[in-house]
Design brief:
Elements: E1 3-9, H1 26-46, E2 51-57, E3 69-72, H2 78-89, E4 95-98, H3 107-110, E5 119-124, E6 129-134, H4 152-162, E7 167-173, H5 179-188, H6 193-202, H7 207-215, E8 221-225, H8 237-241, H9 246-252, E9 259-262, H10 268-275, E10 280-284, H11 287-295, E11 300-302, E12 315-320, H12 331-341, E13 342-352, E14 359-360, E15 364-368, E16 381-382, H13 384-391, E17 396-403, E18 408-414
Length: 416
């Protein structure tokens, strides 16, 4: 029998599983880390061991079962913390240390037969290792081994053998560091707590989170209807993040300053207007979009369009590009809001769907390439003829309908 040590961090948002935050919030990543830790501790509970120790960075919580001795981590780098964990847990029996990132491990793996071996090592697919065992503490086995690299496992094995230790190898496992790792665990080990939580989170992301992550370049996102069919105008992130193209500039030539860009995204339209010397302001509900716009030297405000905005009733033009007439899922309500924002003879420029008769107010869903899906987002897709019908209930009068091979636009002017 031996001592099993779990080296772990308290699952606090922002301190654990930061690589999961390419698709999950800090709170969600911490919840996944906690579930993984609970799964791991459950396996250790069931393993044949004399003692169970947790070497903890942070404070224990209700997730820690009875029967575990808590030892506070000490040391600066991970190599020092691992060495200290062995020293602090040693009672004369062999010790097997595991991390909190391989919840799929099995109790029998922890009941290693030490006969003929001085050390144990279990590698991970990303080049690290998920467990390390030593008969007795030896700082020489750890200090100076490069940690958190794609060759940590190889270097650790080389160090153990250089010390003349006979090393027993355990199976290679995949640890949970990235969203793809979490997806692998959920598919291959569906009954784990972390897998069940992952599946719940996969289908309940806030649309704004996925949009911000797409703008930040951490993940690829497509917009679809509830039927799964792609909505092209809402999935062209490359065009949104690029400078204004020829069609954008042609549309903006209709604008009369000052211009308000509703749903400005990363700011290509506001920036193009500023380069023309036209005063412009972008508004967006995405903090990331506003940050990207201001980083380009343009002006933007983090605010929903239905909340009070600067210059109400005095804007020369209001712009709804990239299908943003769909914001909120009610085109009539949005057109009325635009009429409130422009001056008495002001212009509203709307990019509509190329299908003139399309009038679809079905919510949309944002999806990542790893399968994460947002909750339904109220949205509308409207063609020119449908938009004209909606405009009849407002004080906006259509003045021009024009298009390019792949995009369509309608301009409306406010009338008394």
């Amino acid at each position: 029998m031996n001592t099993v040590i779990v080296i772990a961090k308290e699952p606090v948002p922002g301190r654990v599983k930061t690589r999961l935050q390419t698709e999950f919030t800090a709170r969600e990543a911490a919840a996944l880390a906690r579930a993984s830790l609970v799964d791991t501790l459950s396996v250790v509970e069931a393993a044949p061991a004399t003692r169970r120790v947790i070497s903890l960075d942070g404070a224990p919580g209700p997730w820690l079962p009875r029967g575990f001795e808590v030892v506070e981590q000490r040391g600066d780098g991970l190599d020092q913390r691992l060495a200290a964990a062995f020293e602090d847990a040693y009672d004369g029996s062999p010790m097997l240390l595991v991390g909190m990132d391989t919840p799929q491990l099995r109790p029998e793996l922890l009941g290693f037969d030490w006969y003929g071996y001085d050390a144990v090592l279990g590698l991970t697919e990303d080049g690290g290792y998920w467990c390390l065992g030593l008969r007795m503490p030896d700082r020489r086995a750890l200090i100076g081994v490069p940690m958190s690299t794609d060759h940590t496992g190889r270097e650790q094995l080389r160090r153990l053998r250089a010390l003349g230790l006979r090393v027993g190898m355990l199976p290679t496992l995949r640890d949970m560091d990235t969203p793809r790792d979490a997806a692998y665990l959920a598919a291959g080990f569906p009954d784990l707590r972390v897998s069940r939580l992952y599946r719940r989170l996969q289908h309940s992301a806030h649309p704004g989170l996925l949009f911000d992550q797409a703008l930040g370049g951490t993940t690829r996102v497509v917009a679809t209807g509830l039927d799964g069919r792609t909505v092209p105008s809402l999935s062209e992130l490359d065009r949104w993040t690029a400078p204004a193209d020829e069609v954008d500039r042609l549309a903006l030539s209709r604008c009369e300053g000052p211009v308000l860009d509703i749903g400005c995204g990363p700011g290509r339209i506001v920036t193009a207007l500023a380069e023309r010397g036209i005063a412009a302001l972008g508004v967006d509900v995405s903090p990331r979009a506003v940050s990207l716009t201001t980083s380009r030297g343009a002006a933007a405000l983090h605010r929903p369009v239905q909340e009070p905005l600067p210059g109400e009733g005095r804007w020369g033009s209001v712009v709804l590009m990239d299908g943003n007439i769909g914001i909120g899922g009610d085109p009539v309500d949005l057109l009325r809001r635009c009429a409130e924002l422009v001056r008495p003879d002001g212009l509203v420029l709307v990019e509509v769907d190329p299908d003139d008769d399309l009038d679809d107010t079905t919510p949309i869903v944002l999806r990542t390439l790893t399968g994460r899906r947002s909750t339904p987002l109220p949205w509308a897709r409207v063609g020119a003829r449908a938009l004209i019908r909606h405009a009849r209930t407002t004080s906006l009068h259509p003045t021009e309908d024009w298009r390019t091979p792949h995009r369509a636009f309608l301009t409306l002017r406010r009338t008394a």
